[in-house]
Amino acid sequence: MSEALSTVYVVDDDASVRSALGSLIRSVGLRPELFASTQEFLEKRRPEMPGCLVLDIRLRGKNGLDFQRELLEANIHTPVIFITAHADIPMSVRAMKAGAVEFLTKPFRDQDLLDAIQVALERDRGARERQAELAVLRERFESLTAREREVLPLVVAGFPNKQIAAELGTSETTIKVHRSQLMRKMGADSVADLVRMTEKMGLPRKAS
Length: 208
Hints:
The protein is an alpha/beta fold. Helix content is 56%, strand content 14%.
């Protein structure tokens, strides 16, 4: 995805800071969206494209750390970069433990923020790619018949067709057909491919 499609959301209740950050973000070809409050940010419909959030830690009526927790609880995983004029070590530790990309104390160098933004956007881009891949795998898995889903973990465990047939009480020829079908539906070129796919989906492994 091109950088031009990436959005940097800025939440800061200081209008001059918002304006300065907006200009800085635009200067490197990114698209800023500026908000005076967390409520404004939540009310804005966000496009399905890579983005990150530059968040002031001390906002009127809302603590940035509390808002970070609320986002996670709402299953919103936009990477967060904290900026603050008043920081302490416990605050920064809490932010980073909760998954913040960076914790910058004002005044900070423009390049430090831009570097953090690039890291955050790469993190979000990677997460979106993994989610898209997982969605495809789950759709393929849903296309399997009940019998093919029974055969799958046995194939992944490395059982030969004869043993799978004995385990499921059917013929080896039937298992060969099921095995071929599930490999085709899952888009797997090898058993190793199939193993990786099941691991990504978090499917339980059958002991070999």
